[in-house]
Amino acid sequence: MPRPRKDQYYRQAKKQGYRARSAFKLKQMIRKYKLLEGVNVVVELCSSPGGWTQVLREKDRTMEIVAVDINPMAPLPGVKFVKGDITEDTTLEKIEQLTRGSADLILSDCSPNVSGHWDIDVARQLDLARITLEIGHKLLEKNGKVLTKVFEGRGFREFMTATRKSYNSVKLVKPDASRKTSAEIYLLAIGPKKN
Ligand SMILES: C[S@@+](CC[C@H](N)C(=O)[O-])C[C@H]1O[C@@H](n2cnc3c(N)ncnc32)[C@H](O)[C@@H]1O
Hints:
By secondary structure, the protein is α/β, with parallel strands linked by helices.
């Protein structure tokens, strides 16, 4: 597949010292959906290299940030980093310890390894989104929010149906900085339904 062109957001990220152009996607979603309002503790899954984490730190100097990735991430002031696979229980245990079992916002910009087979890639992406939403169920209070990347493809409709059963409000959002040609879209789920 040809590499995407280096666009305005790529250049702006370089110029402004962000580790990833995706920083601008998060900035746009924070602004539009007031994601950080009332948030004291945020868990950011799949955070490396740290573009989103930089934005979080810059927007709020006191918010507790727990960032998690299977790959290493260069440190950022006041950010607790867990190096681990989000599909593994031991990683969740570490997150629970660091957050004392409670968070207000879960962010997830995970990208699994690309297989080259579209249906497999969609399934892997939806699996990581599903795990993110489960982590949300464990850590969030009743008005807590999850923002996670998803791909529209086979299994997406069933995924949406299941998510609507477990969260009070579910919507899909596509920030301007997300490439128009990319199948990625973000799902914002608010309020885990607790029995
Ligand atoms: C698109 S990057 C995230 C970029 C980040 N939002 C930023 O602004 O710098 C996707 C990340 O997902 C991570 N990842 C993929 N699968 C994972 C898993 N199972 N557990 C933890 N991290 C994972 C990758 O290591 C990669 O760093």
